[in-house]
Design a protein that fits this description.
Two copies of one chain form a homodimer. With about 300 residues, chain A is an alpha/beta fold. Chain A has helices spanning about 5-15, 20-25, 30-45, 60-85, 100-105, 105-115, 130-135, 200-210, 225-235, 245-250, 280-300; strands at about 50, 55, 95, 120-125, 145, 155-165, 165-170, 190-195, 220-225, 240, 255-260, 265-270. Chain A has three domains: about 5-85, Orthogonal Bundle (Arc Repressor Mutant, subunit A), CATH 1.10.10; about 95-160 and about 265-300, D-Maltodextrin-Binding Protein, domain 2, CATH 3.40.190.10; about 165-260, D-Maltodextrin-Binding Protein, domain 2, CATH 3.40.190. The interface between A and B is medium-sized, with 24 and 24 residues. Chain A binds a DNA duplex (30 and 30 nucleotides) through helix 3.
DNA sequence: ACCGCCCACAACCGCCGGTTATGCCCTCTG
DNA sequence: CAGAGGGCATAACCGGCGGTTGTGGGCGGT
């Protein structure tokens, strides 16, 4: 089975037509036609039925589809890896972090780092867990920052800072003297809340804890991002549970109190175990730790 | 990245030399040399260092190795699948089962089936769980028989018959009148036993149950197969826990009693959900069920 | 009925991937 | 230390694979 055939097969199934596949592969339509016939000849069974002048995948072709897709994906990954493997030390700082951190902590860190290393170029990606792992493994980025546990063989994670889930509320919700006191989760019973449906480990954890509260909090609005929850809370939509970085960095007028759950959100750095971090990278992580601890200390106080 | 290069890279890392790789790929050594240079040219960094006239993989090359190996494996799988996809109904009965079943139940089933379908050719493979899944998914075989749970997306499993773990002992170990009575697991405390280290779900389950017994059974000998355990038990080595098929079909002089654990070993048929089973195949499964139930009834009585 | 889309076939051609022949370097050995 | 041998690189050569353009036929929509 030549790779040519696999690419062609994949392209035809992607575009739905042979000419489309030919365009995708940057070859002419007759070349694709001939290649497809060769592939079928080689395999011994037809891959597509020619029905009414169109190509329609055979049953056998559909059986091979998953494998073909996997191979194409692997090839793509290899491509990415080999492209990133070339430059060993050209990009001193390539960071990928979750959207939440990209909107709160990381800009300050990069700004501060830029004053010390003005000539260092920084690449910042925002990705969720799975693509973050890929990006690190394929050497598209060197350091990942996340609030989730990212156990992954081939990557090490280093806890930088721990904090509490924060309950945010419209201004004046609580007496000011209470703001430093952790709020027991039972106090959320029956309260109006903004639901968080973000599909990550922390989102699930929050859902799990809220499910135990009786009577259940009343959530009329469900949002996908913590930022959006901040905005809605500030407009009087109710309470919400967010990570401490979002809570502290939000531009909205908000009250916030830590939720009484011991140390349940941890900022972690993730990177490849080979090739120890260089000067800029370690300095970057130092700044992340410092600023994060500063933020969380403020938030907790 | 051409597939050619990937194959070559894999071959060089497999054989350790370029000429070896060339032989493996059935091409001449200069062709391999040229291809390797093209690959390195294309990638932009050397894959192998030429040190003292030999090839030595670069650090970068080793980074790509896992991906390359995965791609080669995928290609091999695709090859197998496409080879088996060709013949839709040529092999009416291709069965894969675990070694235990191949030595006990299946021969009788095949013999019986041969009397009804004398012209049907049967292919029997013996494989452990993971290769069994592969074999079924790649259509190298049509029906799998196993005593383990084989949950696998893309395959369905059908329970055929349930039975008990059996305790086997040298002749005369128990009074004959006790043989039908299930033995409580606590009765194994402090007994001499043959340990089973077979690495499958049932082996782990047995280990788990035995670990709870106090004082722990005394196992001086550990074996990898149930058959071997039978032989050692028959020679007075102590007791052993085996699946009911091995116990019942062993040629050794043995006593056996069911272990008091409710219905903890299940004979299952596994096959692809598409393409319903044909006549021979359903008849085969009928016979498996009948003979298995007969065996287990005998064993339990 | 016509046009447009899509696929198949034909004829042609450049270059990729193979070959054989040969040379260099290193290692091992008597 | 000289010679043998294994391993890789280079050179010169060649066939066919993989591409092109040009064309024709089947089908559907207007």
């Amino acid at each position: 089975m030549r790779l040519r055939y696999i690419e062609l097969f994949h392209a035809v199934l992607s575009t739905g037509s042979l000419t489309g596949a030919a365009n995708l592969l940057n070859i002419s339509q007759p070349a694709a036609s001939k290649a497809l016939q060769q592939a079928e000849n080689h395999l011994g069974f037809p891959l597509f039925g020619r029905v009414r002048g169109r190509l329609q995948p055979t049953q056998q072709a559909l059986l091979m589809r998953h494998h073909i897709d996997r191979i194409m994906r692997e090839m793509y990954d290899l491509q990415r890896l080999s492209a990133n493997i070339t430059r060993p030390e050209s990009h001193p700082l390539r960071v990928t972090c979750t959207p939440t951190l990209a909107q709160t902590l990381v800009p300050d860190v990069i700004a501060r780092l830029g004053k010390v290393y003005p000539d260092t170029s920084v690449e910042l990606f925002t990705q969720h867990s799975a693509p973050m792992c890929e990006s690190l493994m394929l050497r598209e980025s060197d350091i990942g920052l996340t609030l989730q546990d990212m156990s992954h063989h081939g990557l090490v994670q280093q806890p930088l800072c721990g904090g509490n889930i924060m309950v945010i509320a419209p201004p004046g919700w609580w007496p000011d003297r209470d703001l430093a006191r952790p709020l027991p989760i039972a106090a959320l019973a029956g309260q109006p809340m903004i639901g968080i449906t973000v599909q990550d480990a922390m989102g699930n954890m929050l859902q799990g804890h809220l499910a135990k509260v009786d009577p259940a909090p009343r959530a009329h609005v469900w949002v996908q991002t913590y930022q959006l929850a901040c905005s809605l809370v500030a407009r009087g939509g109710g309470l919400a549970l967010v990570d401490p970085f979002t809570a502290r960095c939000s531009r909205e007028p908000l009250q916030m109190r830590p939720l009484k759950l011991q140390l349940d959100v941890t900022l972690r750095a993730v990177y490849r175990p080979d090739s120890p971090l260089n000067g800029v990278q370690t300095r970057f992580l130092d700044y992340v730790r410092e600023l994060a601890q500063g933020l969380l200390a403020n938030a907790g106080a």
